[in-house]
Structures are given as C-alpha cells and as structure tokens.
Specification:
10-stranded mixed beta sheet; 10 strands; single chain; about 35% helix; about 325 residues; alpha/beta
C-alpha cells in the first residue's frame, strides 16, 4: 500500500453494442474521514466489479481513517493507493484528481457509504463510449438513506445483491434518465478527465462541503446527465459527518447564496434549496426525527440569514461554529 501526502435524448443509438473509441482507463476515488469500518464494508462491492477499476484511490486525512491495507482485497489488475490529504471533501477529492491526472480517462467518485452494483464500472464505461458529447454522469440510486434513518452496510449490500440478481448481464444500451443537469449527485458521479482538465472542487466549502458536487459539475464543460448505466445504494451514514447540526444549517443557507453569487448555481435553484431546508428545519423542530437535530439546523439557518444581511457570511464560518 502506497501512501502519498501530497439525453436532448441519446437513448437511441444506431448500434446499442457499439462503443466510441478504445477502452477507457478508469479510476475510482473514495474519500473518507473517521469511518474505516464503513470503507472496509464497501470494498467487496468495489473489488467485485465485472469490469475492474484500473486505479482505486482512498483519500483520507490520517492513518486512523483507514486502519488496514485495502490493496490485497482487490484483483491484481487494479492499482490501489491511499492518499493523505487535508480534511475537507473538496480538498480530498482534489488530491484524488491530481493523483489521477494523466493516468486515467475517467474518474468515478463514490461516497464511502455508497454500495455500487456489480456492473457499475462496466456501465460507466459503456455510457461514456456511447455518449461522446456527455462529460459527466450520475447513476440510479436504488435506495437512499440520506433523508431517513439511513441503511447499515449489510442492508445496503443486500439491496444491491437483490438488484443485481434482478438485472443480470451488462448494460449495453444505457438510457438517459435526466439530461442537461445543473449538477450531479456526489455520492455517485463520473467525469471524463479530458473535460475536467484543471477544474477542481472549491476549497472555500470546508468539511462536508454542502453542494460541492453541484458546484463542481456545473463548472466542468459539457453535458451532465443521469443514467441507468450504473446503480447503487446510498447508506446515508450519519456518524463521521462533521457538518451536522448547526454547521449544516448554516451551510444550507450560505452555500447556495455563495454559489449563486459565484455563478455556478442559478438563482432559482439556490432559492429553492434554501427555502426547502429552512422550512423543513423549522416546521419539523416541533416533532423532529430521531436522527436529525432540527433545532440546531434551524439555529444555523437563522445565523446564516443574519450574517448574509450583515455582509459577513462565508462558507468557511462553519469551522468556528
């Protein structure tokens, strides 16, 4: 183990079995903080892909984030590295991009609690081969625990196994489920490295970095689509997230405002995101879900509004909350 510090509708194609160009070199980036057991549980699904990754990078913030060597768990054809990066999802993802630049044609980002189907990487390769004008993809989330209590890794693995059993065989003609998207869903997204170029995630969005995925995809040139080419289950694990409670509530208001002013998120989308979260946090504060600190999020919402009005709001403020 090496540690480094540093579809317009495209569903119908002339030949559904045809691909454009040669086979792609495919790299996968998994960023994680404080969840080694989660990563360990994810690896069998990633290592058991019908189309193995060429490179897999685990980007963590200290050796304790990944207290085992993942390399022996992968097939020999897959190069596995562990990178030590500054804490924060944008910084960690940027380390992954920098390490992959020049070595792969496609980068895939999976959250450390996203369990992909067995044919996910094969489907990503097929989709990019058949959609030459598409720069970024997000897949079908079979089940998402982020807005509920979440799923355990065994529960997610079982759901994916059932899905794979019902959808045997490779995806030879990927369908577009949503075209010309503003951003992609960060738990499962893939990009052509040629389109990414020098574009990097915004380090001004610290820690868990609310909306960093939408901002990044919006700045990568080319079309962004949702496709059934790859699938998986997002566990929505609650522990290990350093932007919970008041911090998240603050980010739910300030980050859309910041990205609107930056120009990567349209005003209508930014307003929708802010209103939806502020309304939910305050309305549900009376009868909150056991897994959500609605009072703390609502407090963060109000502080964000106050600081926007005062002209002192900044995404980095959550570091001190």
């Amino acid at each position: 183990m090496e540690k480094l510090t540093r579809m317009e509708n495209l569903n119908a194609v002339a030949d559904p079995l045809a691909t454009v160009g040669e086979a792609l070199r495919l790299g996968v980036v998994i960023c994680s903080v404080g969840r080694p057991d989660c990563v360990r549980a994810l690896i069998p699904s990633l290592a058991g892909q019908t189309r193995p990754a060429d490179k897999v990078l685990f980007v963590v913030t200290c050796p304790e984030d990944l207290d085992f060597d993942p390399a022996p768990m992968f097939p020999p054809a897959t190069s596995v590295e562990v990178l030590i990066a500054p804490k924060g999802l944008p910084s960690q993802r940027n380390f992954g991009l920098d390490a992959l630049a020049g070595h792969v044609d496609t980068v895939v980002f999976f959250d450390d609690d996203f369990v992909p189907s067995r044919t996910a990487l094969a489907g990503i390769e097929a989709a990019f081969g058949q959609m030459p004008d598409v720069s970024g993809l997000t897949g079908r989330v079979i089940a998402d625990g982020i807005n509920g209590a979440g799923f355990t890794m065994p529960e997610a693995t079982a759901k994916v196994a059932d899905w794979d059993a019902a959808h045997a065989g490779p995806v030879v003609a990927p369908r577009v489920l949503g075209a010309d998207l503003v951003g992609l869903y960060g738990c499962n997204m893939a990009f052509r490295m040629s389109a990414v170029g020098d574009t990097r995630f915004d380090d001004s969005l610290p820690l868990y970095a609310w909306l960093e995925d939408i901002d990044f995809a919006a700045r990568v040139p080319g079309r962004m689509v949702k496709t059934d080419a790859f699938s998986g289950v997002h566990c929505g694990v609650k522990f290990g997230r350093e932007s919970a409670g008041r911090r998240l509530g603050y980010s739910q208001v300030v980050n859309p405002w910041y990205l609107w002013r930056k120009g990567s998120v349209p005003a209508a989308l930014a307003a929708k995101l802010v209103f939806r979260n502020v309304a939910a946090n305050h309305a549900k504060s009376f009868f909150p879900e056991p897994w959500v600190d609605r009072l703390a999020r609502a407090s963060g919402n109000r502080l964000a509004v106050l600081e926007i009005l005062k002209g002192s709001a900044t995404p980095g403020r959550i570091i001190n909350l």
